[in-house]
Amino acid sequence: MKVDKMKGMKVITADAFTLGEVGGAIADPKTWQITHLDLELSKEAIKEFAFRKPMLGLLSACLPIAAVNQIGDVITLNQSLLEFKNLPECKVE
After folding, report:
1. Domain coordinates of the chain in residue numbers?
2. Which of 6, 21, 56, 88 has its CA 20 to 30 A from that of 68?
């Protein structure tokens, strides 16, 4: 699947919580492999994780590709919401 087709797809945890939407992908420039999805967190996820939403823009987190279980109409993850509480913020260099 092309990365641009995944942009905007909803991301659902194994326990059916909408974590957010795909904003893009992050690749390792040495291997050209996609390592993470840039996940734009939903308002509900921001509230659940007790993050502070920025005044402008969205809060993004780096979702490891290994967490993806299945891709269809939505992206389903192989872990529950609680297992994603420590997702790092995506900062592209």
Report:
1. 3-84
2. 56
Beta bridge partners of 21: 10, 40
Under DSSP, the state recorded for 45 is H
The pLDDT value given to residue 57: 67
Per-residue pLDDT tens over the stretch 18-64:
999 999 999 999 999 999 999 999 989 888 888 776 666 678 888 99
Rounded distance, CA 40 to CA 46, Å?
A: 10
What is the homologous superfamily of the domain 3-84 according to CATH? PRC-barrel domain (2.30.30.240)
Would you say 23 and 60 are in contact if contact means Cβ atoms under 8 Å apart? yes
Strand-by-strand arrangement of the 18-28 sheet:
60-64, 33-41, 18-28, 10-12, 75-77, 68-71
